Amino acid sequence: MINSDIGIDLVEIKRLETIGIEKLAQRILSEKEWQEYQKINHPNRKKSYLAGRFAAKEAIFKAFKKGDLTNNYKDFSILNDISGAPYVSSDKFKQIEIKISITHTEAYAAAFVILIHKD
Q: Which domains does the chain have, with CATH numbers?
């Protein structure tokens, strides 16, 4: 039997604007994510990127049991492989495989995560 956990999160992009896009980006993005974020020129694409990363990180926190491994947004990065698919990069998750999916609309971003515990 596979030992796994799931997490999901939905973010309203307009709500992020009330928090402050740049302030939130500096608070939650890892160095690698920040570098990618800075390369984005279109304001709406920046919001979408940030909302997707925020939803993904919140989904990961929800999948972990309280206090397990991390509760810091910058402890891991949500990056994209050559085909554009998201993946999680971190030294903290050596015994866990993380599968992640992120989707965006003009108004929302959502993420779904499956944690597969390696034995």
A: 4-117 (3.90.470.20)
Q: What pLDDT, on the 0 to 100 scale, is given for residue 66?
A: 59
- pTM for the full predicted model: 0.92
What span, in angstroms and rounded, lies between the C-alpha atoms of 90 and 94?
8
Give Cβ neighbours of residue 70 (< 8 Å, ≥ 6 apart). Answer: 61, 64, 76, 90, 92
- Tell me the sheet residues that pair with 8: 112
Torsion angle, alpha carbons of 6, 69, 73, 75, to 10? -120
pLDDT tens for each residue of 66-110: 556 667 899 899 999 999 999 999 887 778 889 999 999 999 999
The catalytic site residues sit at: 62, 104
